[in-house]
Amino acid sequence: MFRSSVILASLSLMLHAQSALAVGACDNFVKAYSEYTQKVEGKIVKKHSIFEMTDWARNSRFQGLVLTEKAPANAEVILESKLSSKAKTVTTKTKKNTPFAQDEKYRVVELDLTKQLGSAPTQEGSYTVKVLADGKEVCSEKKLIYNDGD
Amino acid sequence: MKKSILTILLMAALPSFVFAQEDPIQMMKLTSNYIVRNLNGDQVCNLPKGAAVGIVGVAPDGQRLKIMALTGPCAGVMNGFVYVNYLRPASKTVDKYTETAMVETAGLSLRKEPSVEDGTHSCSLPANTKLNIIGEVQKRSRWVQVEIPNPPKGCPATGWVSASYLKPDFDLKTLPVIKGQALTEARTPKDCTDCDQGETSGGKKSEVKKTVETAQQIEKFVNQPPELAAGVPSPFTEFAKELQRTKKCPNPKQSDYKCNRGLMQMPAEGNAGFCGTHHYTPDRPPGVDTHAAPHTACSLLAVAQEWKKTACPNDNAGCKIAWGDISHTTRPLFNKHKEHTRGECIDIRPFNTGSFRDAGRTVTASDYDRAKTTEFLKLAKKHGADIRYSDRKLMNANKDLGIAWGGSAHANHMHICFEASNSKVQAACNNLTVDPRVCSEVQ
Asked: A146: distance to nearest CA of chain B, Å?
């Protein structure tokens, strides 16, 4: 009885660990962020938003990426982008991250998304964010890049 | 009885009017099933998608066209108007009306299939090439199958093009402005404050007259002491000064860069915009992308102020207005914005539920607040806005807002314009009363 319980518990833990590290949506590990200013009682104060990664366009781009508490401590983040169907794929990766000054439970990934994806896309493309731990892919998420100008 | 006689007379007369005159009446096709209304907003008849109608004039707001139908439930109706966004120019080909358009962007690719994949390019079309539209498919953007009556050398007579690079083969300015409604019931001043019974005025002359009237209204406003103009003590001195400065660069002198092309800078400090709004992804140097035509500036203030006072007083709520590009001081075309050149249009993100987030979202996002977004669009419309957006559900439930479908490019923002041709917009500066408690930025 005791032995089977231990086996079940172990299996459950293994499955949980596997699902946490399964390749899929990265929302548990990496999010988008924007810092902004707001006037509060006549004074300009700094604020921030943290949210699920969005497609990349003039009206829906964001400042950068942060790793969540659930992300592996030694996470490596890869940003792959293809700005149009004819463009070459550009890949950048980093292991560097720094605590997010406005909320230290997040770590800012040192990748310049605006530089790589452009501030005002003019064509349709895509970008993919991958999180790796010890060289193994923890998750991968693909988003669109598009022109929403008119 | 009266209507039957009228219908018979009309059916007898219209075909000859349409096809025999030297300058035939413009025909257009409905892009969807449509409830035709008079200028008062009363329903007068229904038209099915694809119905061909004659266009006999344009309403004073510049957004609705007066139609004449040859057959069907609207035949004989003389006071029906349809929003221009639901109409596409058409011409008679053999036995039916076919939608027509012109190439707006030189070098537009004619393709074998509705796709930008390699191997689909057939040839490049010069600007102003006339096209008959014989089919369409909606992907991320609208693609249309075209027939080219006079194909350029090396181009086949048919193919596919992206509809984003086409313009109507038709100029609204050539239409007479319909100021009243013939054969309609008497209206009260409340119903139609701008309209005179039975008047029709010439197209171009009316446009000029309107521009002059607008300029006079703005002049009148900026020449008044700010206190009087704003209607409150200690009003928005800086805003009035900015209007005053802009007056010296009379709109629409869009080429006058020394005077910011006749546009005035909307108040914004970092992301903190006017009247508690949020300005996302500002360009550098700050303020360069926040320039609006004077009449639009007044409309934006009026809408933002009313929104904050009546619908969204909490600065940290998801209904906070988040806006992006308006127009640029030195670059009429920036960020590929064809419709942000004159300072009359602004991009606004859809609202989200819960707390404010400085984040982009589409109409399919889990945090999208459709109800609040609808409420805002109703307010904008009340102030004379012309709206382009891509939320089918919202549009179907609010057809009276006359929202133009914006394709996939407008699922993440509302494209809202306050144009000088709209009487409400023309009057925006005169009607503006700023509450310094709400719009402290414009004092």
From this structure: 8
Out of A32, A124, A150, closest to residue B415 by CB: A150
Q: Is the CB of B412 less than 8 angstroms away from the CB of A59?
A: yes
**ipTM of the predicted assembly exceeds 0.90:** no
> Is A150 in CB contact (< 8 Å) with chain B?
yes
- CA-CA-CA-CA torsion for B337, B217, B376, B359, nearest 10 degrees? 40
- Higher pLDDT: B266 or A22? It is B266
DSSP 8-state assignment for residue B249: S
Interchain contact, B325 vs A58, CB within 8 Å: yes
| Residue B228 pLDDT greater than 70, yes or no | no
A89-115 pLDDT tens trace:
999 999 999 999 989 999 999 999 999
pLDDT at B11 over 80: no
Q: Are A61 and A33 in contact (CB under 8 A)?
A: no
| Cα distance between residue B307 and residue B323, in whole Å | 14
Range in A42-46, B175-179, B206-210, B373-377 with the lowest mean pLDDT: B206-210
Residues of chain B neighbouring A122 (CB-CB closer than 8 A)? 336
Cross-chain Cβ contact B271/A149 below 8 Å: no
